[in-house]
Each structure stands twice: as structure tokens, then as C-alpha cells.
Design a protein that fits this description.
The protein is an alpha/beta fold and about 400 residues long. The protein folds into 2 domains: about 5-55 and about 115-195 and about 380-395, 3-Layer(aba) Sandwich (Rossmann fold); about 200-375, Rossmann fold (3-Layer(aba) Sandwich). The protein contains 18 helices and 14 strands. It has helices at about 20-25, 60-75, 80-90, 95-110, 125, 130, 145, 150, 155-165, 175-180, 200-205, 230-245, 260-270, 285-290, 305-315, 345-355, 360-375, 380-395, and strands spanning about 5-10, 10-15, 30-40, 50-55, 115, 135-140, 170, 190-195, 215-220, 250-255, 275-280, 295-300, 320, 340. Helix 2 packs across helix 4 (about 95-110), helix 12 packs across helix 16 (about 345-355) and helix 15 (about 305-315) crosses helix 17 (about 360-375). It is elongated. InterPro entries: Glyco_trans_1 (IPR001296).
Length: about 400
Amino acid sequence: MKKRLKIAIFSGNIPSASFIERLIAGVSQHHEVLLFGMQKQKVDYSSNSIRIFSTPNSKLKNSFITLWRATKLFFTNPKALFQLLEEVKKEASNYSKFMKLSKCIPILLHKPDILHLQWAKDLPKYAFLKSTFKIPIVVSFRGAHINYTPIVEPDFAEKYKATFPLVDAFHGVSKTIIDKASQYGDIANRSTVIYSPLPQFFFEAYEEFQKKESEIIRIVSVGRNHWKKGYQYAVDAIKQLKEKGYNVHYTLIGPSSPTEALLFQIHQLSVEDSISFVGQLNQEDLLKALKKQDILLLPSLGEGIANVVLEAMSMGLPVISTNCGGMAEVVKHKETGWLIPMRNTDAIAEAVIDFNSTSESELKSITNNAYKFVKNEFDFKNNISKFISLYNTVVKS
């Protein structure tokens, strides 16, 4: 019988993003999963293999719990406590010293066999757990923290170069993101591409494509309110399509309160009646909302591989995506969708027009190709088994 490992899947927040929650659920079927971080809301996991060791949001409660945990660590492993206190002294402010102490004590109390950091940006803060306490570390590359963090915050380039050698294994959500991260260290022989698994109900929702009996072309984008999502180019494209005589409606799901810049742009272009905003939806409601649309648009300037594109492909919804991050690994132009240049309003409008003029039989072929590709590469069970193999390899080595 194989040993059950203690895997800390760390994102900093409990619960985490949906794709990390799927990883937690999958890994818990094979090993014990430890969750550390700030608990933003109550969450009940059905698996007994998932254990939560949260850092309270309340400063007072956090102080009491940290003192209790520190006392417990003192009696069980005093050397570890004193080593941690030496590490904490390096922090600049008293607040950062306390937060580092409160976040790291539970990790040392319940020392995992592997600490899997979901965000590369967390590595500089937790790399000492490998160098000082010999806890093996796995780091995931998911896009933003490799694509633009070292540009926006230049000191991270040096931090990555200093800490990448300490990492036991890297996981990338695409080949492209691993190639990008390789500029900060020789990581190729420690890197594995594992695409983010999709929930089964999206595959179960697959329907062979049929053009809707409507004169309106319904376009949808899904994502948080962030400059990298490229919504401004999509809005310009909506204006262009309307000027060419196309009846279009653009729905943005996620940014319930858009930026002033985007609202001003929409007003200035007089396209208020053609654009609507919907707040963040759970996955089941998102699926229902997507079924009402004709095509999904990803106008992003940076991604790993966008989950919403995969979800659309798995359910048979056509997609238009910019050629950002690893999107070219999944969206093959006119084979599984439309792949267009970034920051190109004309290209967005032309792709929508091309979609609208494509025959139903061709669209069925494109969406069927997309479904088969995603089903083969992003199947939940297959991808979880790859993570289990990665963890086993790290522990053996």
C-alpha cells in the first residue's frame, strides 16, 4: 500500500479559485491535503482528507491563536520555533514580522511532505521553508506572476533568480509559461506541463453547435476587472461592428463594477445599449449564462491558459481568443476556434464577422474539434493523476 502523503496546497486564501479547489478535491482522493492561509468564508469539504489550519482575519483572534500555536511548537520542536524567529527578524516592520510568524507556525506544526505554492509570487516569502526546514517545494506557473509581475515589480526578477534553485519541481499550465519562466533559471528538467482540469459538468453540458434563430450576435467575455483582460479593445470592436451594420450585444461576466475608464469609453462611443455587465457567477450559473451566447471572446493581453475558454470549448461554444500566453496551445485558428493578435480591434471585429458568415456545418466541425481536444487534454482524472505522479517523484527524489 502506497504511503499517504501530506500535501499542502497553498494559495494564501481559503477557499481558493475554482481551479485550485478542483485540484484540492482531486488530490484529496489520494493523499491528505493541508490548507493554510486566510479563511475568507466558511467552507465545508466533504472529504475527511482535507484539513484546514487557517489564519484568522481578526487581529485579536489571530494574536491569541498564534501565541497558542507558538507555545505548542515550543514544546514539540523548540529548535524550529527559534529558527523561525530568526527568519522573522529579517522582515522590515513589526506587522510583517507578526504576519510571517502567524502564517508559518502552522506549516511547521503540521509539517507537510510537500508545500505546493499555487502562485510563483509567493515563493520568495516561503523559500526559506526549504532551505532551513527541508520542506520540499513545488511551484505552479499560472500566468500573471511570470508574464508581468517582474515587469511591474522589477525586483521580482532577481527574487526568482535567487529562489528558483531551491524549488524541487515546477508545474506550468502551459508550455509557453514554462519557457517564459526559464529566463529566471535553469528549470527545464524540473518542470512539468499539466493543464488545469475542468469539472465534468462542463463536458456533460456539451451540445452539437446550432446557430440560434436571432438577428443579434451575442458575444460574451468572462473575467475579473483588470487591465490585462483587454476589454477596451473588445468595446472598440463592438463600435466597429455596429458601424458596419451588425446587430451585436456584448456581455461581460465578472466585472460587476467596471472601471471608470471602461465606462467612459462605452459612453463616449455611444454603445451603452449594446453592452451589459453581469457580476461574478458560480460555475453552474456561468454554464447557464454561456448557453445563451453565440460566441465567447477572450481579448486578453496575458494569460496562462484561460479556464473560461476551455470551459466554453468543452460545452460546444465557439471561441475567439487573442494569441497571448499559452492560448495558441489550445486555440488552433479555424480548427478549434479563432486565434487573433493582441491589442487589435480590427482583428476582433473581423473574427466576429467571419464567425457570423461561417456555415453551420463548419461551425459544428470547429466546436467538435475543440470539444475532443479539451476532453483529451483537460480531463479531470487524467490531470489529477499527473499531479500525483509529480508529488511522488518529488518525495522519492
